[in-house]
Amino acid sequence: MKKLKFTPSSSDRWMSCPASVKLIADIPKPDTTIYAKNGTACHNVADVCLKKNKSPHDFIEKKIEVWATPKNDYIPFEKSMAETVQTYLDELALLRKEYPKAKYTSEKKLSITPVPRLKINGVVDYNIKQRFGDIVVVDLKAGVGVTVDPSESTQTWLYAIMAINNQWDEYDKARMIIVQPNEKYGDTRKEHTMPVSDLKQWYYDECIPAIKLALGDNAPFGPSEKVCRWCPALPTCKAAAGHVLSAAGQPIEFDPRQPQEFTNAEIGQILPIIDLYKKWSSAVTAYAIDELRQGRPIDGYKLVRGRANRVWIDEEAVQKLLKRLKVKVSDMFTKKFKSPAACEKLLPSDKREKLKPFIDKPEGKLQLAKESSKKPAVSIEPAAEFNDDFDFFE
Ligand code: SF4
Is 248 part of any domain? Predict the structure, then answer.
């Protein structure tokens, strides 16, 4: 078995489901996504800007080296990434004014040893230490994806604990700030402050006991919609399957004397199960395809090819052939007008405004979202939208 990993970024999972730590120990790390690579490039540039007093705009169109799985890569640094980094640097500049005498670190690798011989490592994006005052950790989330709330993010709490480095008595309060410049529907800056004594209590009463459970025999499983969806063991985990299938197989009490249709409250209880069921079924299918590709049989299943469209092997050669066969050039091509975004790129930035009156943005398809989603609820006339297409979940 490989080394057991307790990364801060997966702390929600291993705290809720201690058994997951051993279950995923032998699962290879997935390839780094382009979104994660872009995020790493933003962190790398921010760090250089802080240490060498540069502007992120100096890096636009340069290739930034990022560490990634299976191998390191070079990512082109785009203008939007420079703007993301600038928002983060602006926040740090404000904090430095607030704590002129404090110590600062950027992209610093820190660790804690919650139990003997176990180290949890993490890179803390930015840390401010004001002895006998505040400990501040700032976390840059460069992506557009999941909204992170520092009042619930155990990852950020662990970063603060790493920064405290067992010197609990040297700080009064921990400020945990998440800068998420591309957050579309909520605040791009979120802060949670808690007394260091509360953080210490959480660490000793909840975090360390979960780690001890994970390291021991018979660690408990804690399947839930929140943690299983991100767990690499999802396709093969029996606890997750049991959770999904037993929820799906709940006997429905049927009493002909009672109303025979679900109430909306009951539908509200079924939807989260459907959401996890869909995630679980796609993960199991992807796992089965991968096993068959690797030559490991799955009882009763084989790989087949889906439908595919024909493609040209050599477009230039075909065009020459068609010309020889007297086909008009204008008949060979379909002219398509470019999208608003593509046409805007044809103009210098000071002339793009002229296109604005010609651009309309139709409303997006209706989607079902959880009440907790940051997207604003849509108010519509029920009959007017009756025939609309809709998606199940955002
Ligand atoms: S899939 Fe869910 S239940 Fe299974 S190990 Fe992962 S988090 Fe735990």
Answer: yes
